[in-house]
Amino acid sequence: MENKTKEKVEEVLGKIRPALQADGGDIELVAVKDNVVKVKLQGTCAGCPMSQMTIKNFVEATIKKNVPEIERVDSV
């Protein structure tokens, strides 16, 4: 089940990625375990003061909308 969930999360990240890349950033999926997604922001997104807001309001919201079994997204 986790592999299928991970595939769904990867698909959603593929849709999110262009918006982050437009600002010089990117996102890496680190893990999906126990309905928690761990991601790492890269490029300019990594040091951005708005990174936590990006994770919660954009990345987490989009993932949870498309993969409802996900409970939260954490940045690592």
What does this structure look like?
- The chain has 76 residues and is α+β, with helices and mostly antiparallel strands.
- It has one domain: 2-Layer Sandwich (GMP Synthetase, Chain A, domain 3).
- It has a 3-stranded mixed sheet, covered by helices on one side.
- A hairpin with a 2-residue loop joins strand 1 and strand 2.
- The longest helix has 21 residues.
- The termini are far apart.
Could you give the topology of this structure?
Blueprint (H helix, E strand, L loop, with lengths): L1 H21 L2 E9 L2 E8 L7 H16 L5 E4 L1
Parallel strand pairs: 2-3
Antiparallel strand pairs: 1-2
Q: Classify the secondary structure makeup into a structural class.
A: alpha+beta
> In percent, how much strand structure appears in the residues?
25-35%
Number of helical elements: 2
Distance N to C terminus: 23 Å
Overall pLDDT confidence: 94
How many extended strands? 3
Contiguous uncertain segments of 5+ residues: none
CATH-derived architecture: 2-Layer Sandwich
> Outline, from the CA principal axes?
globular
